[in-house]
Amino acid sequence: MTEGSPACAAWAQLIDALGDAAWLVDGASGNVLAANRAAVELLGLARERLVGIPAAQLIATPEDLAFWDGVRAGDAGLLQSDTVLVHASGRLVKVSRRIQALTGDERCLLVTVQDRTEAQRQQDERETLLAELRATLESTGDGILVTDLAGRITAFNRRFAQLWGVPEELLTQRNDDAVYDWMRRSVCDGETYQRRLAAIQEATLMQAHERIELLSGRVLERVTQPQASQGRPSGRVWAFRDRTELETASQRINTLSTTDVLTGLFNRRQLGETLAESMRQARRANGTLALLILDLDRFKQINDSLGHEIGDHVLLDTAERLKTCLRQGDSVARIGGDQFALVVQRVDHRGAEAAAQRVLEAISRPCAVDGLQFTMTCSVGVALFPTDGEDGDELVRHAETAMQRAKQGGRAGFRFHQPHHDADLRQRMRLDHAMRQALASNRFRLKYQPQLDMRTGAVIGAEALIRWRDPELGEVSPGEFIPVAEDTGFIVAIGDWVLQQAVRQAARWRAEGLLMPVSINVSALQFQQADFIDRVGNVLRENRLPGSLLELELTESILVHDADEALARLSQLSQLGVRLAIDDFGTGYSSLAYLKRFPIERLKIDRSFIQGVPQDDSDAGIVRAIVQMSAALGMKVIAEGVETEPQRNFLVEAGCDQFQGFLYAPALDALSFDERVRGRPRTTKGHLSLVAR
């Protein structure tokens, strides 16, 4: 310690006891007389270096320099403020510094310095958090209101003011009572709102969640949580979320989920609920009801030819007409594109029939849309509760099946549910499933029936015929499963399999030296596939089989469905070299004007005409006419189902070119066919002995 007053010497012993950094300064010289351990640590200088150093060097801010100049001039006042000092390492330290003369000795001054580094860091963090909180409050989509325990507003964001429509001046004036009064007057039920608000404020720790409707039409969701500080309640946070659009959308969704958008009638879902409730009531009252399902006849033609706008007008008109058919308690729904349903209460079989008649009459009244007049009809299916079903799904299913039967029966009528038709439908479903399994498991097989030249007896071709033996169903006739396959569309897959197998077999025979044309049947659906021509061409190329060794047998219905399209396809097939024939000729509705345009090489007389010849004059006349017509068109004619020698003799006399049937052989597997064709002439009981060439 340097020279100084006795008072300074006494204070020098005391400053070591201070927690903050402190040093004594001689007022006359401005030098440090003594420093405590805290000062040594704060400044980073040894005590020996501190003693005697000018005090103005330790904290050399302009404020401090001016103060020490004043001290030297005899003006030793008080200096207290936040400042910075430079640590010996060169870093700045934020401090609070106080300089004052010691009591009784103005020549000795005490400098106390408090390190504010940690306090400043905490303050900076608080300011950062506050800034983040303000930004969060303003960026959230919710309106936020913060209150203290007394209900005074301590914070809010702009979204709160927007949601409630609070005038800005009320918030800027900090008039809490005016703000609360505005909110109370803004809700639809102010009394209930105020009562609920008081209950929440009274229960300091209550959490609440509720829905508030404003007079403006806005719907708010209010969530409030208690706010705590140091484990004690300090206030409450209120969050308000705008649910207006959500509520509107929810109502819209609810409407859409139960109502048909176009007609405003119940939809299928709501029909199910209405039907279930009606059935419960009928069951309690030991009563009955009827479900009518109707489908507009040929409505697709309206959409395709007149456009969907006209179609929508027709549907709207239909809905209005059906409403006129309802009695009290009845209901009507639109359950599909042009399909409607009526639930008719408290009716028996006779009452349901009367309801169906009312529907048919209402729909058949002339329509007038945009100046266009036409007449619509519908097909109606009827199912009765509890006779035809114990639940809604079963009743709907039975009514729809009955409606389909009305369609198949000529349309513009109604049918009641008949249980045996369900049994037929289940059988068809089982058959369809078994067919698909059979194709996947290679249970189908092909047999080949020889086709012969009528005069020479030479085998000139083979018709590939599909056969199926199922492990559970046994041998299933093509007459059973082919119609089901055509109805379900599976005939396309089956037809592809037959095409591949038949072409492969013809190619195998060709490789073995037997040039044997193979005929296969082609369904209308298979023929109409966009890639059918490509499939035929690909199969022929893959097996390296000339098109002349493949014949496609088509039904007359294929040709008359779309003659121009059929002609284009047949021409493409003809370019591949494929032979074309008309199967079951005489059972369809071929037009000779179209027939002569098609590249057809052969007509096949249906077996139904062969069975009666030569005894049946009508059948004989038809056969002769077909043969003569074929000759005029330059086509060969083949008869199928020839079983007796008199039938063959008649066909020879009539001029028929070819035949096939049990008279020569049934359909044979490929090996048996090969042996039969290549074998020597032989006579077998029940079969005609012919030479194979």
Low-pLDDT regions: 680-693
Q: What's the number of domains?
A: 4
Which class do the helix and strand fractions yield?
alpha+beta
Q: Give helix % range.
A: 40-55%
| Neighbour order of strands in the largest sheet | 18-19-21-22-23-24-25-26
Q: Considering the protein shown, what is the CATH homologous superfamily of the largest domain? A: EAL domain
Radius of gyration over alpha carbons?
51 Å
CATH class division of the largest domain: Alpha Beta
CATH topology name of the largest domain: TIM Barrel
**Biggest sheet record:** 8 strands, mixed, barrel
* CATH architecture name of the largest domain: Alpha-Beta Barrel
